[in-house]
Design brief:
This protein has 236 residues and is of the alpha/beta class. The protein has helices at 2-8, 32-41, 140-151, 215-235, and strands at 13-19, 22-27, 49-57, 101-109, 114-121, 129-131, 154-156, 185-190, 195-200. It contains 4 helices and 9 strands, in the order H-E-E-H-E-E-E-E-H-E-E-E-H. The strands form 3 sheets. The chain has a 5-stranded mixed β-sheet. Strands 6-7 form a two-stranded parallel ribbon.
Length: 236
């Protein structure tokens, strides 16, 4: 399938790659509708179904955050993600020369028993917009709404682009990497106003520290189990 896509020379396809037996295509946003139509209607490809749509945030992408020592896990060495920062730390700036947001489409061809991943980058990092594919695959409707809700990617041409999983008064997009772990607002019932109100978050901010898995922890556990077993046998 990758060879056929490369040989077809479809305008707008900037990259075709196969990684771990998974076919991926990168497409220019201006040609997305034409490329998607070709992938659906051309008998060589016949990607009849759109299985999923998701947004990707490439903030701080490619920055080395971990030192593993060759195997196992260890603590991160650089706070490259918002989840490992202390409250009030400065959010890492995105490289303005590179696109930050991408919309990824997962396609299925029943005829050829093949799958493909279609990726398109939004050109504007401040207000990411890509064309909607609802006119090509109707299943994109709710999936694009979810991507808009959680990642803040706008889909031009979508007829009902509203939040899908968060509340109407929700502030921000929770899957963005610079979204604070504690959120921006919280809601509660006000008995005086007799309605639900929004207010700034009142919970204590916390830092998400990855769990460290060390070989010594297992040795200590094994030793404790062995000692308990020996003690039980001696009591018997």
């Amino acid at each position: 399938m990758a060879a056929a896509l490369t040989a077809a020379g479809i305008a707008g396809v900037t990259k075709v790659s196969v990684i771990n037996d998974e076919l991926s295509l990168e497409v220019d946003a201006d040609h997305l509708l034409a490329v998607a139509t070709e992938l659906r209607d051309n008998p060589t490809f016949s990607f009849e179904q759109l299985m999923d749509v998701c947004g990707v945030d490439y903030l701080a992408y490619g920055e080395d955050e971990w030192e593993t020592g060759g195997s196992g896990f260890s603590r991160g060495v650089a706070s490259a993600s918002i989840g490992r920062m202390s409250f009030g730390d400065e959010v890492p700036e995105h490289n303005s020369d590179a696109p930050r947001f991408a919309s990824v489409y997962h396609l299925l061809s029943l005829q050829h028993n093949a799958r493909a991943r279609l990726k398109v980058f939004a050109k504007d990092n401040e207000f990411p917009v890509v064309p909607s594919l609802t006119s090509i695959w109707s299943s994109a409707e709710w999936a694009e709404r979810e991507s808009f809700d959680l990642m803040g990617i706008h889909y031009d041409g979508h007829t009902d682009l509203r939040r899908l999983l968060t509340d109407y008064g929700f502030v921000g997009h929770p899957f963005r990497k610079d979204f604070p772990l504690v959120g921006n607002v919280e809601m509660r019932y006000d008995p005086k106003k007799k309605r639900v109100i929004y207010q700034p978050v009142s919970i204590e901010p916390r830092v998400l520290v990855p769990k460290v898995i060390r070989s010594t922890a297992r040795r200590n556990t094994d030793t404790a189990v062995e000692e308990a077993t020996q003690e039980g046998q001696s009591n018997a």
